[in-house]
Automatic annotation (TrEMBL):
GO MF entry, a single one: peptidyl-tRNA hydrolase activity
Site (Stabilizes the basic form of H active site to accept a proton): D91
Active site annotation, chain numbering: H19 (proton acceptor)
This protein's name: Peptidyl-tRNA hydrolase
Catalysed reactions, semicolon-separated: an N-acyl-L-alpha-aminoacyl-tRNA + H2O = an N-acyl-L-amino acid + a tRNA + H(+)
Keyword terms: Cytoplasm, Hydrolase, RNA-binding, tRNA-binding
Binding site for tRNA: Y14, Y64, N66, N112
Enzyme Commission no: 3.1.1.29
Cellular component GO terms held in the UniProt record: cytoplasm
HAMAP family given in the database record: Pept_tRNA_hydro_bact
């Protein structure tokens, strides 16, 4: 079984914010893979499905970003999912808006949702898809920026990044992550 996690914050006030881009990819995948998110447990909302014989879970942690690992840890332990069978999607300040980067391991890079995930999985060796949101302009605090909405110009690029990220996750259900990295990076 594989676990696909989108990081974000629950609540309508966070919809379509930069920090919730992981949730948007999960929503896209839910539609694409016809897997509704209807199960509320393990501190998250999830959907279970199968694609070409591969079972998977889509997860949106409902713990708020800084505690995302609590939900991810519970789901991975309950379903006995190895870290190598997990992909985490999240916003990244160090990539230009709309750019995506796939990696198999790495540090949290200052991202609190990833810090929590690493803490609860006990490893840095899980797959991830970083989705670029760029850094804020001078004088704009990072928390204010990541909880803000995309500009009109950015929205089109982000819609494409969400679709591409969802397609990469779908490809991963039938191919090794390294192969998907080579195709999508």
């Amino acid at each position: 079984m594989k676990l696909i996690v989108g990081l974000g914050n629950p609540g309508s006030q966070y919809d379509k914010t930069r920090h919730n881009i992981g949730f948007e990819v999960i929503d896209q995948l839910s539609e694409q893979l016809q897997t509704p998110l209807t199960i509320q447990k393990h501190k998250g909302i999830l959907g279970k499905g199968s694609y070409n014989g591969e079972s998977f879970i889509l997860l949106k942690p409902l713990t708020y970003m800084n505690l995302s690992g609590e939900s991810i840890g519970e789901v991975s332990h309950f379903y006995k999912i190895e870290p190598s069978d997990i992909v985490v999607l999240y916003d990244d300040l160090d990539l230009p808006v709309g750019k995506i980067r796939l990696r198999q391991k790495g540090s949290a890079g200052g991202h609190n949702g990833l810090k929590s995930t690493i803490q609860h999985l006990g490893t840095t060796e899980f797959n991830r898809i970083r989705i670029g949101i760029n850094r804020p302009a001078a004088g704009i605090p990072v928390p204010q920026y990541v909880l803000g909405k995309f500009t009109k110009d950015e929205q089109e690029m982000m819609a494409e990044a969400v679709k591409t990220s969802a397609n990469a996750c779908e490809a991963w259900l039938t191919k090794p992550f390294l192969q998907v990295m080579n195709e999508y990076n």
